[in-house]
Structures are given as structure tokens and as C-alpha cells.
Amino acid sequence: MKAFDITNLVRPNIRSLQPYRSARDEFRGKASLYLDANENPFPSVYQRYPDARQQRLRKEVAELKGTSPTQTLVTHGSDEAIDLLIRAFCQPRIDNIITLPPTYGMYATFASINDVAVREAALTPEFALDPRAVLKASDSSSRIVFLCSPNNPSGNLLRSEKIRDLLRSFPGIVVIDEAYIDFAGTASWTKSLNQFPNLVVLQTFSKAWGLAGIRAGLCFAHPEIIQVLEKIKPPYNVSYAAEKTILHAMSRQHRRMNRLSEVIRTERALLVKALQDVRFVRKVYPSDANFLLVRVDDAEFIYEALLRKGIVVRLRSGALHCDNCLRITIGTPAQNKKLIRVLNSL
Ligand SMILES: *Cc1c(COP(=O)(O)O)cnc(C)c1O
Q1: Which atom of ligand 1 is nearest to the CA of 216?
Q2: Arithmetic mean of pLDDT, 330-346
């Protein structure tokens, strides 16, 4: 593999940026009296700013995930990591990113907000990754390709040999968004961080961990990439409340999370079978995530009919290769039974 120069990929203005220094950056020891950050002197649970450097968080996350703290960053949802990556590596109106439709919409949205062009390299009609299509869509200004595995909205994992091909051949950063990895039963790409300096892995507390309201995401990459993101992140991007909640979840609720993810995987298999027996269902796509992409005879009609029964699913007909498709989140056993009962009554 050719040497990969991260510094050269960073936007020139970010390379030369002097990061903001918070009170806790200027003084890092222990003191008896903190009169440096204009906090309120009267004690309360949330009196102090959180640790901008996330030392405890990064240590605990790294231990759980088998990474090193220098390869690890906690973000305000994984959506923040997507934005930080684009802002760190893409010059507005000059550089571009590559997305693989149909996929998660936030990659293109953040690119547009940052005035960065989006090039599309479609997944195949079976939602497989075609590395040659990605290379064909890219040019010397392509900085990041966003892979989503398991992919939203199709639900499937992308083949690891194809991802490895791309990690070797793509001249920029390869992001693998693993928001749904805990439902997949396969190893995370974090295991390959030491092998690929251009690999970035995103995970989140929003799905399997059941903490979407907390807004906490995880970003894993080569320490040089993490340093760049650290430099541009808002100093207090993870609140003290979120920090406490995820430390507690990681130490006390890991088994619960695994158990409930297992229930969802079992329910997924049952729901696939039940959906295949519904009169107007044409195809249920295989899923490694906590949702199913389902092709029906008339998606808009079914969507509206479900709504009238108080059940809301996601209409995905507009997405590439997703004609007449609904995306349905796996519910509890009782919720799934109700869904099937209602579908069979339409
Ligand atoms: C839900 C989802 C996320 C989660 O974003 P958060 O900001 O962490 O809540 C990220 N990527 C994909 C593909 C998702 O579906």
C-alpha cells in the first residue's frame, strides 16, 4: 500500500488553525479553587463544564471497543462526526465527497451545508458495493467516500473484500458508518484501524444502546485524523449529562444492550417470515440492521393506510432502487404482532 499522507489531505486553513483554548486547556492540574471559567460558584450537579479532552470517556470507550484512546473521539451524535470530517478535509467549492445511493441522507446534507460537491456512485440494484464505480465517480479532488454498513435504508452489510479493495485504492478517507453494527453479528471495522490509516469508523449510542436522546456518537480513526477532528470540534461537544449517561451505560448496561439487540435480531427473522406471507408484499430485503426494507404493490397506499391505523413507517419510494419500498423499524414482539395484524387486515 502506498504511503498515506493525512496532513496533505487536511484543508489548508485547518492545517494552520490555532485551536480555541478553553480554561481547562490553559490549566490542567488540580486546584482547590477554580475561578478561571466563569462557572457559577454555588454547587450543583451540572455546575462545571465537561472535560473538553474527554479523557475518561475516551479511555473507557477505547477499553470497551479495543481501540486506543488516541484513535477514539466522542461526538454530539455521529452526525457531528460527519460534519467535522467534511469541514476538516473538504475545501468548499473545490473538493468533493462520494456517496453511494441509496444511503443515509446526512452525508450529502452536511456536504451541501459546507458548499462541498457530492458525487454519486450507486450501489448495485442488490445494494452491493462496487469499488470500481466509486473510483470512476472520483477524481483528484475527492476527499471522502461515505460507506454505510449495514446500509440505511437497505439494511445489508457491505462485503468486506469490496471495502478492503476500496481502502487500498481510494486516494482519500474511507468512512464506514456502523450505526447498526450491533444488530449485525459481525466484527467492527475498528479491528482494522492499525492496518488502514485512511479508515474512519463511526458508531452511535442512538440505536442499539437506546440513547438517541443523549446525542452521543463515536468516531474511530488513525490518531492523526482524530487530532484534526479534536482541533475543530466545539470544546464541550459532549455534555456532562451525556458523559455520565454513556459511562453508566458502558459499565452497567452492556449486557442488557446485547440481550435486547438479540431480541431484535430474533424478531427481525420472525417479521421477515410474517411479511413474506402478506398478500401485497413483493420482496423483503435481507437485513443486518434493526429495520427491514420491504417492497409492496403500492407503497404510498400502504403507507397512508397504516397511518390511518396510527402506525408510521418510512416511505422510501423516492430513493434509488427503492421503488414502492417502505422501511420498517423492528419493534417489540407485541408491536410487531400488531403491525402484521394490521397489514393483513388492509
Ligand atoms: C441513525 C443513524 C445515525 C445516527 O446518528 P446520531 O447522530 O448518532 O443519532 C448515523 N448514521 C446512520 C446511517 C444512521 O441511520
Answers
A1: 8
A2: 98
